[in-house]
Amino acid sequence: MTRVKLNELDPSFKDRVAAQPGGEGIRACFACKACTSACPIEAIDKRYDPRKIIRMALLGMKKEVLESDFIWLCSSCYGCHEVCPQNVRFTEVMFAIKNLAVSEACVPPGLMAQKTLLREHGRLYEITDFENEKRGKLGLPPIVEHPEHYDELLKDEEAAPAQSD
Amino acid sequence: MNVPALESVFLNSGPLPRRRELRRVLVLGGDATGRAVATRLTQEGFEVLLLGDEPREDLPDSVAVFRDTVLQEVHGFVGGFDAHLSRAAGCSKEQVGFIVAAAPPETFPKFDRYGLNSSERVMSLSEVEAKLAAEAPPVEARGEWLHVAFLCGLDGGSDPATFARVLDAMDGLRSRYRAQPYVFTRQVNVAAWGLERRYRESREEGALYFKFDGTGPVFEEGPEGVVMIFNDPLLGIEMELSPDLLVVDERMRPPASLKPILDLIPSSAATSPFLQPESTRFPGVATAKAGIFSLGPARGNFGPQSVSCDVDATVVAMKTAAQDQIGERLLPGPPEVDPARCTICLTCVRLCPHGAMSFPNRAEADPASCVRCGICAAECPAKAIHLPPPAGELDLDTRIVESTPASGGSKKIVAFLCARSAAHAMETAGSQFGSNLVPLIVPCAGTLDLGHIMKAFQEGAEGVLAVGCHPGNCASIYGTVLASERAARAKILLEEARIDPDRLVFTTLASNTAPDWADTTSCAPFSPIGLRPIRQALQSRWRALREIGGRGLDTGRAG
User: Fold this and answer.
1) CA angle (B221 as vertex; B216, B222 as ends), nearest 5
2) Which of residues 213-242 of B touch A (CB under 8 A)?
3) CB atoms A7 and B143 under 8 Å
4) How many CB atoms lie within 10 A of CB A33?
5) Residue B334 contacts by C-beta under 8 Å, 6 or more apart in sequence?
């Protein structure tokens, strides 16, 4: 990686994360690494290191954080949340960061496809006649899709997009 | 180890007081701390002399204020200090029972330590503080943000007082600029009132900390001023910062006005910039020398709550000392100096960490100042000093003889244990060391001299264990350091005597580390099967040597 120039980073980025619901705790981090030790994702993919993500956000490395793909790897297990001695609540911080990424149109294509599935089918897996026929043979009732609620939810989000400042 | 120059010792060590005056106090430093303690002591019935140039507005009338006065020299002991004061009008000598140092340390910036030069955008912490106090903006911002880099103990020295000042300056800058503070440090020391909380608050307000273990930042001179280049310790990525303002921290040294006091306490060179060491053995305002106190900024406590606590502690300590009529009923007595043996070399006067040795015309310990560490006796080259044992106990040499196999004892290993640390650790650990070891408790590891160690071997000990407090935690400042140096010399002697030097182990323990005690006593040289009697070991070695015709004389070791 080329040399990072602190003067060219965005010191207000940490404040933007902290202004998001759930992001408030980020600046309390004193980098003890308890979160990283507790993280099951970090154990298999070193790119997802909670302590480093916090550090990058605090330093103002906005582009590097929001445009990365690793921020989407969080499994929301709340392990980091449990162990944090400074009450950073990192799982919530990750939601805040991901919300900011969405507002800056930095969403992985796979995630957008999932959103379309949710809106159209009310679930991440489309139920077709094939599945319901199989269920019928096993004596199970057919599944009826109810996409209407999700449609409403996601429509609202589009009508009032997350504020981008 | 630095010890004060000989001349100053001659000047400062005075005769023992014949009568102790315990109601008269000299306070050095006339700022808020000095005035507060002077006021409180007056209220408690002490007669206070205050050396300082501040106005006397809020002081009780009975405080004698000495303005434009210099403390030339002091000698004496608790209850009988002679302070020589000089001013334009002439000199005077005042006798006081206690001395309170309240003058804050002097600071000077560490530009040289970092290879930096002072400039428009590179300032010392004091300069920034002065500008902020004068409501003058220290610098012009060059962009939307003012990037401020604070250096805080980046050269290895970190203290809470400087960190508190950094946080104050940070607050001051943030109230005037849209500032992004960066703190470059090795370790943040928050051991002061409210500092942990302020450290957290500073982070929440946006300060960024860079804590380096290895290589710190490199400072390069660029067209826009200083550029700092470093590897972020957390991300491991190379970074650079061109600070709009680079604030250089400062080191402290005792103020010149306290030099006569420093000369009075031989261990003060090891505790600079303050009069007492940063150690759990010195939690309060007391210094190593009885009757001398150091409080507030003079001991690194700058916050108002800490200063107020220190004032209370000083008053309590002084009242207790005055009520006890200190020194009148101390048993057992301090070391005795044999005038026939004493060569007046003054080693004891120079080395007593507590400044307890008096030298009017012969060496003599002040019973009220002596803590019986035994350093004087161990260091005396003429063996003229003897530390009498507590009532009902035998002295150390006799205890060594009685405990070792030559006298019919069954124990094989002699363990000299500092009463303040190792003895407690052993007590907590119970008898985990088995029956092979005889503990001999000494008041301080500094008591232990070469003769004690060699005597134990001479009397048939198979091994010797010597345990002191951790360095920096010794109640006599450098007792444990002296003991380790002597143990190193003893190892050389053992080697020359063809005895395995590993049979002597010097180590340090804290009183609450019982598990470490167990590890220490089970380490290889002391395991019951690991030791052969020295005599047997030597005999088999000589047999082997005879067989090979004397070759390899310097290779083998007994044991």
Assistant:
1) 115
2) 229, 232, 234-235, 237-242
3) yes
4) 13
5) B356, B365, B366, B367, B370, B372
Q: In what order do the strands lie in the sheet with B225-231?
A: A4-5, B238-241, B225-231, B218-222
Average pLDDT, integer, range A4-15: 95
Q: Which residues contact A44 (CB under 8 A, 6 or more apart)?
A: none
Q: How far apart are CA B473 and CA B478, in angstroms?
A: 9
Q: How far A32 CA lies from chain B's nearest CA (Å)?
A: 10
Chain A with chain B: Cβ pairs closer than 8 A:
55
Handedness of CA B480, B481, B485, B486 (dihedral sign): negative
Q: How far apart are CA B26 and CA B41, in angstroms?
A: 11
Q: Which of B147, B200, B203 sits opposite A7 (nearest CB)?
A: B147
Phi and psi at residue B230, to the nearest 5°: -160, 165
Q: What order of strands is seen across the sheet that includes strand B47-51?
A: B64-66, B47-51, B24-28, B98-101, B292-294
Tokens of A73: 């790897």
pLDDT at residue B143 greater than cutoff 90: no
Query: Does position B529 have pLDDT exceeding 90, yes or no?
Result: no
Question: % helix / strand / coil in chain B, to the nearest 5?
Answer: 35, 25, 45
Check A28 against B200: CB less than 8 A apart.
yes
Identify the weakest region by mean pLDDT among A49-63, B103-117, B533-547.
Answer: B533-547
pLDDT tens digits along A20-46: 999 999 999 999 999 999 999 999 999
Structure-block tokens of residue B434: 């088995």
* Contact by Cβ (8 Å): B438, B489: no
Q: Which of B14, B102, B100, B93 minimizes the C-alpha distance to B291? A: B100
ipTM over cut 0.90: no
B55/B333 Cα distance (integer angstroms):
45
Q: A97, A17 in Cβ contact below 8 A?
A: yes
Separation in Å, CA of B217 to nearest CA in chain A: 14
Q: Which long-range contacts (CB under 8 A, 24 or more apart) does A151-159 make?
A: A151/A119, A154/A115, A154/A118, A154/A119, A155/A119
